[in-house]
Amino acid sequence: MRLLSSRPVLFALQLLVAVAIIGIWHIGSTWKVPAGLISQKSFFLLDPFFFSTPVAVFERTWKDFATGVIWYHLGITLLETALAFAIGAAGGVVIGFWFARRRIVAAVFDPYVKMANALPRVVLAPIFALWLGLGIWSKVALGVSLVFFIVFFNVYQGVKEVSPTVLNNARMLGMSERQLLRHVYWPSALTWMFSSLHTSVGFALVGAVVGEYLGSAAGLGYRIHQAEGVFDVTGVFSGMLVLAVFVILIDAVVTVIENRLTVWRPTVPAGH
Amino acid sequence: MSGVGGLADATPVTGAPAAAELEGVRIAFPGSRPKDAPFVAVEGANLRVADGEFLAIVGPTGCGKSTLLNAAAGLLVPAAGNVRIFGAPLAGLNRQAGYLFQAEALFPWKTVLDNVSIGLEIAGVSAAEAKARSQDWLKRVGLGAFGERYPHMLSGGQRKRVGLAQVLIRDPKILLMDEPFGPLDAQTRQIMGNLLLDLWSLDRKAVMFVTHDLDEAIALADRVVIMSAGPASRIIGEWRVNLERPRDIAEVRLTPEFHALHREIWGALREEVVKGYRQTEGAA
């Protein structure tokens, strides 16, 4: 087990999974099962019309980047994601803080918050499109509606669950209400927010892409939708590939930021 | 009484007001349901700590020792009775007191240095001066090289040292300590006890030190107060500890005077410990 968990070995194994999947896909979509073996006619296990081929998908992706068309759409999606995250997180922090510090406000709004959060956000997309048009803001709004609740609940919890001993200590050290806010509640709330950073950034992206998919003129979601509309499976897969790599890159950036912001926290040992 | 210890005088005859004085203090918590009778933790507690005196409060687990300390800190308002700090009735938090808690009380998101300097910074001391004085205090508690670390990177004993520096840097007139070394192992407790005595001997603040460990109480204090098992626990006895200072916690325990005093106090405490133990067992 020790050998298997070392980093290069792990990486090699991860690579192996990708190679295996792409290999199966490649063989299934380019090699015809000869006539008479299973059926009277020869056929593909994975019909390229429905599944495209790995080579075609990589070629298309390469071409999109080489000609530069994809950059514009990537930029739009990134902008929407960033705006959705920033606005949603800011709103979540402010409202979460307010609710946690004012018990009566939290009690009054509690059922409405639960109702709003229980609503599947996709049904809001047409409303947002109607209100905000087909530009980026309807997508941002959809992302905000997702990010807000994640951050809100985490900040609310973070402020409410400050250790009473730490709080008493701060009071005995002479902190005023404002200083408590700055030195105790605020850092505590932020840590809870950062602990949900991966989830909330992910949801900001989901909001942007779903919004684009449902109606827009730019962005990765739009590209995938367009390709689907003309049965261009290669285009759909290429869009998904770009999206997947994009998500991994954003996640890596978030990890770096998270590590910098939470140096003070005990590290959870990796693995079990 | 003669010898090293004995029942303390009922009323110390001093002109100066006590650093902290609790008079007929009763502390009650509301029952879990509104119609339930309130739970009385402490009843009729009278306690005086003179300026410069090291007082230890000993009692069985759950007897309300910490509650009494919280009343002196102003974190709890007594249901009856008076709390006076240097003669003045206590209103709100006790601004003259520093409090060392039993549980983890450091700010986990601040470095060790920032944890120590925060008390000065919120009091308006410039950041540069606060940092310099904090570094000095870290050296005094033996953590000069640990300023940039975060609390979770330290051992339990080191965190208590930081806590001590955090409280003492503000130079409180009264030091309240709630089983501060309780979670530590025996050796570390001794080392911490000696560190505490060293620091205390420099400017002799009034100390209220709560513990369930009679050995620790006698080794540290000028006077030991015993509380009965709760609920509605009272103060049932007090003894003066006339062991010579400066003391070494480990060595003072080996002296015959220590043993004699220990035997005497334990005679009174044992019954209460058994009572308290039976109650917690019954409740569990």
Secondary structure blueprint with pairings:
The complex is a heterodimer of chains A (272) and B (284).
Chain A lengths: L6 H24 L1 E2 L9 E2 L3 H4 L2 H14 L1 H33 L1 H16 L5 H9 L3 H25 L3 H9 L4 H19 L1 H18 L5 H10 L3 H29 L11
Antiparallel strand pairs in A: 1-2
Chain B lengths: L4 E3 L12 E10 L9 E11 L4 E5 L6 H9 L6 E6 L2 E2 L7 E4 L11 H10 L5 H14 L15 H13 L5 E5 L7 H18 L2 E6 L2 H7 L2 E5 L7 E7 L7 H4 L3 H28 L1
Parallel strand pairs in B: 4-9, 4-10, 7-8, 8-9
Antiparallel strand pairs in B: 1-11, 2-3, 2-5, 5-6, 10-11
Plain-language structure description:
- The complex is a heterodimer of chains A (272) and B (284).
- Chain A is an all-alpha fold and 272 residues long.
- Chain A has two domains: 1-51; 56-261, MetI-like (MetI-like fold, Orthogonal Bundle), CATH 1.10.3720.
- Chain A has twelve helices and two strands.
- Chain A has helices at 7-30, 48-51, 54-67, 69-101, 103-118, 124-132, 136-160, 164-172, 177-195, 197-214, 220-229, 233-261, and strands at residues 32-33, 43-44.
- The mean pLDDT of chain A is 88.
- The radius of gyration of chain B is 19 Å and the shape is globular.
- In chain B, helix 4 (156-168) packs parallel to helix 5 (186-203).
- Chain B has 284 residues and is of the alpha/beta class.
- Chain B contains eight helices and eleven strands.
- Chain B has a domain at 99-171.
- Helices cover 36% and strands 23% of the residues of chain B.
- In chain B, the strands form two sheets. Chain B has a seven-stranded mixed sheet, with helices on both faces.
- In chain B, helix 5 (186-203) links the parallel strand 8 and strand 9 (206-211).
- The model of chain B is unreliable at 9-13 (pLDDT under 50).
- Chain A binds chain B through residues 163, 165-166, 168-176, 179, 183-184, 187-188, 191, 263-266, and chain B through 73, 75, 93-95, 97-99, 101, 103-111, 118-119, 122-123, 150-152, 166-167, 170.
- Chain A: It is found in: Cell membrane.
- Chain A: Residues 74-258 form the ABC transmembrane type-1 domain.
- Chain A: Belongs to the binding-protein-dependent transport system permease family.
